[in-house]
Amino acid sequence: MKVVLLLAGVYNLVWGGIVVLAPGWSFGVLGVDPDALDAMTLAIWQCVGMIVGMYGIGYLVAARNPIRHWPIVLVGFLGKVFGPIGFAKAVFVDEIFPLRFGWTIVTNDLIWWIPFAMMLVCAWRHHQTDRRNGIGEGSDG
To answer: Which of 76, 88, 104, 132 sits a CA distance of 20 to 30 A from 97?
Structure first.
């Protein structure tokens, strides 16, 4: 669990940093001419990069004790579930993103679903065991 969160933390910090510092680069890699984008689009993309980078910090904190910091893992997991849903809507309903932008969904979201879900199940089981043993009653446990 710790290794996964360390990897997720570093990945998110690197990806977020690149997007903040060079927002047009990722568009270019995916075949979208960054010069054709307006300043607001690039600024919003930089905000996405900042959010992704902040998740990275959270994952690095959670890596110290994934069971205790399960809420950080949960928030990250939910973002990794809802992000692809929003992407699918943007591609198939609103038609504002090209499908090839889905590669960012694979690396930013989909590959993390199983390990994050497994961490949450492990944390849930741990807290259920504590509850059965009377540990943590009246506290965050």
So the answer is: 76
